[in-house]
Amino acid sequence: MDETGKGAGPLRILVTNDDGINAPGLAVLEAIAAELAGPEGEVWTVAPAFEQSGVGHCISYTHPMMIAQLGERRFAAEGSPADCVLAGLHHVMKDARPDLILSGVNRGNNSAENALYSGTLGGAMEGALQGLPAIALSQYLGPKNYTADNQFEAAAVHAVPLLRQLLDQMPEGEEDYRLFFNVNFPPCPAADVKGVRVAPQGYRRGPGFAVEPHTSPTGRQYLWVRGGDQRRPVAAGTDAAVNLDEYISVTPMRADLTAYDALADFKALERGE
């Protein structure tokens, strides 16, 4: 950070994702990070060697992971996005921690309940748990951008000014479960993006993730996990709703899973002095 603690640069940025080291969305994020870091800043990449979509905040607690350097400030690790953040902070960049962690740009939205499964969010969450500013970025896909030459155009065009504003308002000195941010770009070309909305996490009602059975040529049965319709109705003003209305959503999050609204309802369960 600069002397004001804001995001004017130069910045040291750690980049990761869940689509893997060769994913086109990672290249988009590296370009976003380079512009955000400034000419005197640094962008370091530690990303999964293979796709890790849907792993959430998983870490490789019971087995080691191989890490390989692929280029200057560029590494691939055989682990989850959260593993990659740990590798970046405590191995690759152990002598000088980054100012910011960016995770993405995910191919597909991490709005609504998708956020709970997302490895992209898992990487940002681990950054926040490690005490650093962290932002996850995802690109919603739909009829207006799915077959486009650049599916990530909305993110590529609109991310840098938004991230600068977000860093300018990032709270300083937070402890414990500090904020991290979930940013989703709408499923449309960059020119059609209507603006930005700060929105709560939504919920798509109806069938979500499920399994689909298939039989192999050898007669063995396998189950494929499949997702639900990404255009299912959600409450107005929530992240997925504003994305489908062609707005960028920004959702502040914390890793604290406590249902504070329900604590008082269960006080009768307490026992003892």
What can be said about this structure in brief?
The chain has helices spanning 24-37, 81-92, 114-117, 119-129, 153-168, 239-244; strands at 12-16, 42-48, 67-71, 74-77, 100-107, 134-139, 180-185, 195-198, 210-215, 221-226, 247-253.
Structural features:
disordered N terminus, SurE, alpha/beta, 9-stranded mixed beta sheet, 6 helices, two-stranded antiparallel sheet, SurE-like_Pase/nucleotidase, 273 residues, EC 3.1.3.5, Stationary-phase Survival Protein Sure Homolog, Chain: A
Describe the structure.
This protein is α/β, with parallel strands linked by helices. It has one domain (12-203, 233-256): Stationary-phase Survival Protein Sure Homolog, Chain: A, CATH 3.40.1210. It has helices at 24-37, 81-92, 114-117, 119-129, 153-168, 239-244, and strands at residues 12-16, 42-48, 67-71, 74-77, 100-107, 134-139, 180-185, 195-198, 210-215, 221-226, 247-253. A nine-stranded mixed sheet has the order 3-4-2-1-5-6-7-11-8, sandwiched between helices. A two-stranded antiparallel ribbon has the order 9-10. Helix 5 (153-168) links the parallel strand 6 and strand 7. The chain is globular. The termini are far apart. Residues 1-5 have low confidence and may be disordered.
Helices, strands, pairings?
Layout: E1 12-16, H1 24-37, E2 42-48, E3 67-71, E4 74-77, H2 81-92, E5 100-107, H3 114-117, H4 119-129, E6 134-139, H5 153-168, E7 180-185, E8 195-198, E9 210-215, E10 221-226, H6 239-244, E11 247-253
Parallel strand pairs: 1-2, 1-5, 2-4, 5-6, 6-7, 8-11
Antiparallel strand pairs: 3-4, 7-11, 9-10
Helix pairs in contact: 1-5, 2-4
